[in-house]
Amino acid sequence: MITAEQFPIFRSSPELMGKLYENSIVKTYQAGESILNENAYIRAIPLVIKGTLKVTQTEEDGRELLLYYIKPGESCIMSFLGGMHNETSKVKAEVEEDAEILFLPIEKVSLFIKEYPEWLDFIFRLYHKRFEELLNIINEIAFKKVDERLLALLKKKTEITQSNTLQITHEQLANELGTARVVVSRLLKQLEENKMVELGRNKITLH
Predict the structure, then answer these.
(1) If we measure between CA atoms, which residue out of 156, 36, 56, 18 comes closest to residue 101?
(2) What angle do CA 1, 79, 68 make, to 5 degrees?
(3) pTM score, two decimals?
(4) Domains in the chain and their CATH numbers?
(5) Are 119 and 7 in contact (CB under 8 A)?
(6) For the chain, what is the HEC assignment?
(7) Do 2 and 20 form a contact (C-beta atoms < 8 A)?
(8) Long-range pairs of 181-187 with CB within 8 A, sequence gap ≥ 24
(9) Which residues, in sequence order, are CB contacts of 102 under 8 Å at separation 6+?
């Protein structure tokens, strides 16, 4: 059973929380697993109970660009939009931290919109949050240097994992920033020289 602590936005509607649980399938995933791939049809909407997902989009040259993270109590607005219009996914959703996810069949999404105002409010809030995050990414790409974006990404990851030490490769960081690995490696070396990070084998510690 999902609880109001996991999805506080549904606190005023225990009935909706019960319906979500009754009509969904709960699955667990390990970090690195994909739950949604680009160009795949969306049959169910993921609602994160535990863990974190990252949503990316692949560029023409094969590099991935990080769009946003999905935390506990949230879902993927791109899944809502694609699923409801029977369109293939434009993004990839991958598990960043071991996760427990509730999958709600897409046919129930429209039904709950009609029956529960709290569900519609949840969708609108998600849409608003993701829109702001995507605007922020556009702003960063247009106006910020790569080193600023790299440091901001490292800080965001330490907040999500609640650890100053990240198990991640330079290649992974480059993919999420939409840049080349050699660029990330050079910038990380500069950050290390400035005593801002400590580099190890597939490991970065943020000071």
Answers:
(1) 36
(2) 95
(3) 0.77
(4) 8-142 (2.60.120.10), 145-206 (1.10.10.10)
(5) no
(6) CCCCCCCHHHCCCHHHHHHHHHHCEEEEECCCCEEECCCCECCEEEEEEEEEEEEEEECCCCCEEEEEEECCCCECHHHHHHHHCCCECCCEEEEEEEEEEEEEEHHHHHHHHHHCHHHHHHHHHHHHHHHHHHHHHHHHHHHCCHHHHHHHHHHHHHHHHCCCEEECCHHHHHHHHCCCHHHHHHHHHHHHHCCCEEEECCEEEEC
(7) yes
(8) 183/146, 184/146, 184/150, 187/146, 187/147, 187/150
(9) 2, 20, 21, 24, 25, 26, 46, 47, 48, 49
Give the pairing type, strands 34-36 and 197-200: unpaired
Calculate the CA 140 to chain-centre distance: 18
Pick from 180, 181, 199, 200: nearest CA to 191 = 199
CA 11 to chain centre: 23
Determine phi and psi for 28, rounding to 5 degrees: -115, 145
Which token pair is 176?
């999420």
Burial class, 43, CB count within 10 angstroms (exposed 0-12 / middle 13-18 / buried 19+)? exposed
Question: 34-73: per-residue pLDDT in tens?
Answer: 999 999 999 999 999 999 999 998 877 777 888 899 999 9
Q: Tell me the pLDDT tens digit for each residue of 79-138.
A: 998 888 889 999 999 999 999 999 999 999 989 999 999 999 999 999 999 999 888 888
